[in-house]
Amino acid sequence: MNPVFLIGGKTLCIRRLKQTDLQHAYYDLMSLLSEIDRTILRTREILDNLKNEYIYFVIEDLNTNMIIGTGTVIISNNSIQLSQVGHIENIMICQDYHDIGLGDIIFQHLKYYCVNTKHCIKVITNCDHNI
């Protein structure tokens, strides 16, 4: 189940990236991602081939159906479940949504995902989530 929350009068949802996001919110999404992530997504090998290694999450404003934030989890050693390491990277929030704590909210969600869903033995943060 995707977490839905109300902040600043906006109804927001954190969920995994879907193929339809690339079709319908392509430019909104691409403007938030790093160059490396944009390159990976453009190759169209996403979601199927990268599911076990790169997991993209988005924050969607349910009032406007816009993607307003993103964060990436990279699971290393994903073939050996006892020694998986989660890397949290590229947390980006749309400028209009800065300063309401969304960076920390998505960071906590990604960290929870690494520890409780993927059972990572370690989580490494490689981004600034104080936006």
List its salient traits.
alpha+beta; Aminopeptidase; 4 helices; about 30% helix
Could you tell me the mean pLDDT?
82
Structural class: alpha+beta
Count of structural domains? 1
What does the largest sheet look like? 6 strands, mixed
User: In the CATH hierarchy, what is the class?
Assistant: Alpha Beta
What does this structure look like?
By secondary structure, the chain is an alpha+beta fold. It has one domain: Aminopeptidase (3-Layer(aba) Sandwich), CATH 3.40.630.30. The protein is 28% helix and 34% strand. It has a six-stranded mixed sheet, with helices on both faces. The protein is globular, with a radius of gyration of 14 Å. The model has no long low-confidence stretch (mean pLDDT 82).
Task: Give the topology.
Blueprint lengths: L3 E4 L2 E7 L2 H6 L1 H7 L2 H8 L11 E8 L4 E11 L8 E9 L8 H16 L4 E5 L5
Parallel strand pairs: 5-6
Antiparallel strand pairs: 1-2, 2-3, 3-4, 4-5
Please provide a brief summary of the model.
The chain is 28% helix and 34% strand. With 131 residues, it is α+β, with helices and mostly antiparallel strands. The chain has a single domain, classed as Aminopeptidase, CATH 3.40.630.30.
